[in-house]
Amino acid sequence: MIGLSQSTYYYTPKVPRKDRDQADADLRGKMETLQANYSCWGYRTLRAQLRLRYSLQVNGKRILRVMHKYDLFRQIKRRFIRTTDSEHAYPVYPNLLKGFEVTDVNQVWVADITYIRILTGFVFLAVLLDVFSRRIVGWGIAKRIDHRLTLEALRMALRERNPRAGLIHHSDQGVQYACTQYVKELKEHEVAISMSAKGNPYDNAYAESFFKTLKNEEVHLWEYESFTDVVERIPEFIEKVYNRKRVHSGIQYLPPEEFEAILQDEQRKEFLGQVTLKLPG
Asked: What backbone torsions phi and psi does residue 134 show, to the nearest 5 degrees?
């Protein structure tokens, strides 16, 4: 041996402070460019986007350090409200999703309702989400929570997507989904009806996840004051932010619209590989 200690042998010279600060500033610029499109991304998503958009491999710990250094975290106020009226005399339907494998869009839609607080009360939002692509395919906004609200969302989705027979529509057992008018619309379009077990919101986790995103990343940050505020901002968030910009780890860290576009492009589809989503059962 040449008389060197083990610590000396493995010693790695420190990067000069000036060079490190410059590297951090460069990384901050790229991260802020990504966050300009979607400000609520966490460090895991930023790491995936840096690799996807800039071909840049960055350690997660470094990303977190830079986020703390430059205060790149968005502060979020958390609230939770639930609404379901399952005390009715309408027929309910079994859960068809247990163990079901989803391999394409327009195979399974999940439906749910939430409400948004305004100065004078509440505004209600009904949505339909495609489980495979995570895309919101239909929505309705109203001052009252009844079947007209859910029908507005359903008719929009049917009109825009024109699904083939056999599509599964999954919801809770709320009266707005079990009522005669809504069920009639589903059956006329040959849509299979599926419902969660009573009192179990986890059966409809995809819709619940969307509402959590909506509240945390839009509603609670803006504090809507009027019905007009809701009507103007919610559709913009759904279409321009959630469907086009918000990425999902379950679909290769892509936004729903881009994911669906790749599915339609045979040459680019190889990038995704064989995508299958098996629902809990």
From this structure: 65, 15
The Cα 123–Cα 229 span in angstroms is: 10
At 34, the pLDDT band (50, 70, 90 cuts) reads confident
The answer to whether residue 78 sits within a structural domain is: no
The reply to whether 131 falls in a domain is yes
The tally of domains found in the chain comes to 2
Cβ(153)–Cβ(126) below 8 Å: yes
**122 and 238 co-located in one domain:** yes
- In angstroms, rounded to a whole number, what is the distance separating the alpha carbons of residues 177 and 187? 12
With respect to residue 85, please indicate whether it lies within any of the assigned structural domains: no
Give the Cα separation of 207 and 212 in Å (integer).
9
Residue 25 within any structural domain of the chain: yes
- Do 65 and 105 sit in the same domain of this protein? no
CA atoms of 241 and 37, how far apart (whole Å): 8
Residue 79, Ramachandran bin (φ over 0: left; ψ between -120 and 50: alpha; else beta):
beta
Residues 115-146: tens digit of each pLDDT: 898 888 889 999 999 999 999 999 999 998 88
Q: Are residues 137 and 220 in the same domain?
A: yes
Instruction: Give burial (CB, 10 Å; 0-12/13-18/19+) of 214.
Output: buried
Q: What mean pLDDT comes out for the span 263-271? A: 67
DSSP 173: S
| Domain, as residue range, for 25 | 6-69
Instruction: State how far the Cα of 91 lies from the Cα of 93, in Å rounded to an integer.
Output: 7
Could you tell me if 166 and 138 are in contact, meaning their C-beta atoms sit under 8 angstroms apart?
Answer: no
Task: Indicate if 51 and 114 belong to the same structural domain.
Answer: no
